[in-house]
Amino acid sequence: MTVIPGEARLGQWRAVMQGEALTLSPGWQAVAQASVTALETRLATGEALYGVNTGFGKLAGTRIGPAQLAQLQLNLLRSHAAGTGPLLPAPVVRLVLGLKAASLARGASAIRPAVIEALLALLAADILPAIPARGSVGASGDLAPLAHMALLLIGEGEAFQGERILRGPEALSAAGLAPFALGPKEGLALLNGTQVSTALALAGLFAAEDLLRTALVAGAMSVDAARGSDTPFDARIHALRGQPGQIRVAAALRDLLAGSQIRESHREGDPRVQDPYSLRCQPQVAGACLDLLAQAAAVLEREANAVTDNPLVIDGEVLSGGNFHAEPVAFAADTMALALAELGTISERRIALLTDPVLSGLPAFLVRDGGVNSGFMIAQVTAAALTAENRALAVPRSTDSIPTSANQEDHVSMATGAALRLHDMADNLAGILSIELLAAAQGLEFHRPLQSAASIEAAHGLVRGAAAAWDADRAMAPDIAAVKALVERGRFADLVEIA
């Protein structure tokens, strides 16, 4: 796949994350080299250039002599590789490499084409730098994690290739590379930028988009299991409000429920005038979440194409600015966290509804011979625990700035942590939706021989392919894990389109 630096679409980044090869469109090398030449010209004048012949952060006022410029860049990578915690997962590291290469290739960072080509070579060989997940506050760029990425280029640090852990020189050799001696600004250009925050946020976005579609399938299945109404999804209702996400979700729910025999069986004579909100207000809640994700997607697409290191070489000038400040990413991550939390909250309420015989009209806890059997009693408790955890994780991170670098960097975005927590939230939501899918599939079976709509029956088939019907109590955890694996592979998400 060929990407035009500065013009890549989110679908292309999703493909890179999933392992597709990345090349950059022709002509980028000349653009990148021009910025290197421009920097060399300015450096020859003897003027102070931040991070090129000065120290970093609070040490920006310290001039560095010509004989120490290479050591300055080398020391920068070593000193800033101060991350901790578990390593970033392979899909995220693929994104980091691709995003960094594309950003540097735009020709404002004064880094040689050969260094950019080395990042692409690592990606092509699937040799991925070992990057600790924690240690960035999302301003001055993702310094610590990107320093761990860049260490590999000088033959230090570690990488992984599949399950193999490789030391720096071995990793470079496996990719057909030799260690680099960094030129002026190259170390700074490599570790300054928002690529780790953006990669984490993109991974969260892609997971959230799939989980939202899964939530619509689970929610529609719950409507039929509870003999709910499809009237709340009537297009005329949503047109009067005009919220685009709401309109799109209502249309998707109508499509999912179209042709259901269960719905037709109680269209007349049902004593319930209105369903509980967790069934009836799905377009309003999931639609608002869809709009949040769309807004975040637009921000992240721009950020993925951005140049975010400092200083920048523009029109022959070396300009110091603050593009490394990841506030847009932090806000996008915080809003996605709200969507993930709310999708889980309303799903858990539907699970509670299905297990409550007063609300659902189904056997208590979705099992016959209740008392001897507890059925879905504790599965609902698990869903409640995951929901509570996601509510806590949804607290905004972008408002929690802590000054760093002796108050030179006195306002930071916390974007990296904001995006990192999306992984745990998506995992929790996948668990909640798995429980709802199991409960709703069980509920449908109490209405047999009536059939639901085609897509819902397909979802039921996926559930039953992973977990048998609940006739008597058994360990629930394996069933949840089996359905969750399908959720994470996008099998339920594939059953619905959001136009």
TrEMBL record:
This enzyme's EC code(s): 4.3.1.3
UniProt superkingdom: Bacteria
Transmembrane regions listed in the UniProt entry: none
UniProt catalytic activity: L-histidine = trans-urocanate + NH4(+)
Gene3D superfamilies registered for this protein in UniProt: Fumarase/aspartase (Central domain) (1.20.200.10), Fumarase/aspartase (N-terminal domain) (1.10.275.10)
Extent of the signal sequence: none
Alphabetical list of CDD domains matching this protein: PAL-HAL
InterPro entries: Aromatic_Lyase, Fumarase/histidase_N, HutH, L-Aspartase-like, Phe/His_NH3-lyase_AS
Keywords from the named record: Histidine metabolism, Lyase
Subcellular location: Cytoplasm
Any one GO molecular function term: histidine ammonia-lyase activity
The keyword Lyase appears for this protein: yes
First-level EC class: lyase
SUPFAM superfamilies per record: L-aspartase-like (SSF48557)
Pathway involvement of the protein, from the record: Amino-acid degradation; L-histidine degradation into L-glutamate; N-formimidoyl-L-glutamate from L-histidine: step 1/3
Primary location: cytoplasm
Pfam families the UniProt entry points to: Lyase_aromatic
Family membership: Belongs to the PAL/histidase family.
PANTHER family: HISTIDINE AMMONIA-LYASE (PTHR10362)
Name listed for the protein in its UniProt record: Histidine ammonia-lyase
Organism: Belnapia arida
Gene giving rise to this polypeptide: hutH
